[in-house]
């Protein structure tokens, strides 16, 4: 990331800002056909935006996670994460110039962690649907959570290899409660544990790296399923890989596909939670009544519900404290999407500190690769004209990678693809949030065993790089000259 402030120009930082609501700065609509380092083929190269986002403060790096691929679990896809760069104005927080810097594919024991659904269904195997990512500050490894298990892996940031598998609590396993037989590929036969495609959607790490927090997308099968509105946060010890507690989170509603999409640590007990419904501009989505919100929560005083059935009659427990709305992601839109809200806001990260002491807050969407498929597994690119009142209702489907033999999504009749139709982009929104509004925010801090990062000259190189970046952009006078 080409950033021109934070620790790189600490001497120029101004006083902390007063408390205020997060302020929208600007956004990017990244073309849906953007390629990663493996090419542009939709099943091995087209970028999948953004199942999660993470900013590594110590290496000045952004990570954007792709999910199980455009085949919806039915086609081969080697799961991966993208390291990307952004230009960030150190004064305003405005973002620009998104670029892929590295594509890292995941593997376990030399075999790809694959987006294919588990087969046989009672074993996860190498099936992987990545949804949450953080960096362990103690060793630099990636922690990545998934929906199939739900699973949590520690992954080497250089090779993409799994180096540790965390122990998922037994009560979360998708299974038949009577027989104990699991089905990780679908809800068929299951009546307990997480719902299909509703696993560890949110992931956060404590500032000292001692604990990881993984959050289910919504209520488990035996706790209301689609009608349930209370789901779980699991606290893991990163040293042992074992779960040490679970906490109950009250969602805004049930129905409308309501669920949690991201979890961001403010410190070791306070977090930001991104909660959304499945309305908005998306592949196959209902446009009406988009609702995407961020809340601040506090685990302090919440009951460990590891052994409690959350919807049992007479169950007594204290849920996590949930604030009033912290941020409305629907309040600001981009002209590139016809000023309509995207469906799948799934990524959220606290970025660098800006020149006035505030922080960049970055939110991102999952665009589902702008692909759909029929019952036979044949894939189609989905093109939208965002000026339409309902872009999906008027969308066009074309055979994968082609612009001929296209049809209207609504009725399957022939359609001609014109220049005003576009693949669904990935969207990034930049917000400026005051340090006071983040409260007791603490960025991840490596333990002494990890100070090799700073002893290796990396910090010095970052300073040199930032200085060169300032000169290239005509900002030799510092942040004030970069307005």
Automatic annotation (TrEMBL):
InterPro entries: Phytase-like_dom, WD40/YVTN_repeat-like_dom_sf. It holds the Pfam family Phytase-like. Residues 46-369 form the Phytase-like domain. Residues 1-20 form the signal peptide. Keywords: Signal. This is Esterase-like activity of phytase family protein.
């Amino acid at each position: 990331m080409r950033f021109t402030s934070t620790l790189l120009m600490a001497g120029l930082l101004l006083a902390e800002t007063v408390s205020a609501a997060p302020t929208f700065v600007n956004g990017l609509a990244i073309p849906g056909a953007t390629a990663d380092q493996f090419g542009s083929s939709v099943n091995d190269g087209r970028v999948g935006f953004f199942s999660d986002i993470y900013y590594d403060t110590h290496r000045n790096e952004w990570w954007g996670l792709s999910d199980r691929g455009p085949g919806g679990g039915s086609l081969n896809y080697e799961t991966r994460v993208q390291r990307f760069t952004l230009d960030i104005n150190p004064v305003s927080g405005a973002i620009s110039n998104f670029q892929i810097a590295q594509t890292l594919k995941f593997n376990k024991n030399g075999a790809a962690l694959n987006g294919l659904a588990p087969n046989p269904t009672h074993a996860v195997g190498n099936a992987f649907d990545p949804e949450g990512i953080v960096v362990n500050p103690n060793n630099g490894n990636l922690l990545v959570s998934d929906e199939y298990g739900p699973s949590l892996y520690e992954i080497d940031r250089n090779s993409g290899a799994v180096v540790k598998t965390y122990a998922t609590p037994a009560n979360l396993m998708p299974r038949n409660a009577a027989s104990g037989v699991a089905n990780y590929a679908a809800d068929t036969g299951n009546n307990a544990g997480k719902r299909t495609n509703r696993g560890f959607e949110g992931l956060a790490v404590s500032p000292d790296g001692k604990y990881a927090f993984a959050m289910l997308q919504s209520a488990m099968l035996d706790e209301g399923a689609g009608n349930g509105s209370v789901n779980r946060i699991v606290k893991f010890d990163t040293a042992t890989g074992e779960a040490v507690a679970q906490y109950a989170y009250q969602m805004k509603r049930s129905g409308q596909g309501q669920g949690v999409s991201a979890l961001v640590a403010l410190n070791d007990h306070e977090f930001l939670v991104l909660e959304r419904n499945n309305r908005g501009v998306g592949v196959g989505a209902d446009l009406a009544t988009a609702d995407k919100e961020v809340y601040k929560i506090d685990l302090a005083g919440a009951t460990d519900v590891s052994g409690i059935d959350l919807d049992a009659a007479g169950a007594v427990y204290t849920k996590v404290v949930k604030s009033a709305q912290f941020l409305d992601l629907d309040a600001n839109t981009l002209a590139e999407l016809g000023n309509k809200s995207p469906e799948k806001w799934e990524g959220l990260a606290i970025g660098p500190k800006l020149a006035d002491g505030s922080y960049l807050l970055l939110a991102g969407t999952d665009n589902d690769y702008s692909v759909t498929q029929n019952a036979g597994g044949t894939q189609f690119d989905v093109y939208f004209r965002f000026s339409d009142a309902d872009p999906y209702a008027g969308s066009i489907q074309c055979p994968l990678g082609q612009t001929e033999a296209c049809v209207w999504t609504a009725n399957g009749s022939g359609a001609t693809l014109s220049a005003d139709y576009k693949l669904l982009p990935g969207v990034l929104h930049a917000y400026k949030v005051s340090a006071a509004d983040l409260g007791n925010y603490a960025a991840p801090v490596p333990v002494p065993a990890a100070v090799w990062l700073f002893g290796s000259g990396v910090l010095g190189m970052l300073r040199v790089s930032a200085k060169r970046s300032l000169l290239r952009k005509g900002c030799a006078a510092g942040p004030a000259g970069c307005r």
